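Record 1 of the preview.
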Amino acid sequence: MNVPVLEQVKIQAQVLVPLVKTLRAELGEERANAIVRKALADLYRKLGERWWRGQGERDLGEAMARAFDRFAAGDALDYEVLSKTPDGCDINVTGCRYAQFYKEIGAPELGFLVSFRSASLLSQRESATPAVPRSSALP
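->
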């Protein structure tokens, strides 16, 4: 079964949002965020490494454009690939249901911490700069 990434994020948020809010209440926002970033960074970096190995010898621009197709599944993103080269791609995100979801559940600041940041980490590969899109839709 292929579950769109947006639906996976919504499922994960059912656990992560209350957990992060509790950590913030107990430890303070700065310390709680640092713990969450550290825990999730290792996980998402490993997932990203595995994903990159599965991409074969594709160039960075092509691979990132294909990754955005995956993140956009289920009408999750409105975006346009402005340019694509072997070294990267320039993407303009104009609508983001991920950000909208986090606003709807009253936790817009947590979207970046637990979801959008993960996409940035997934986009990393050795000797490459992460492809973080230009966006007028992200909080």
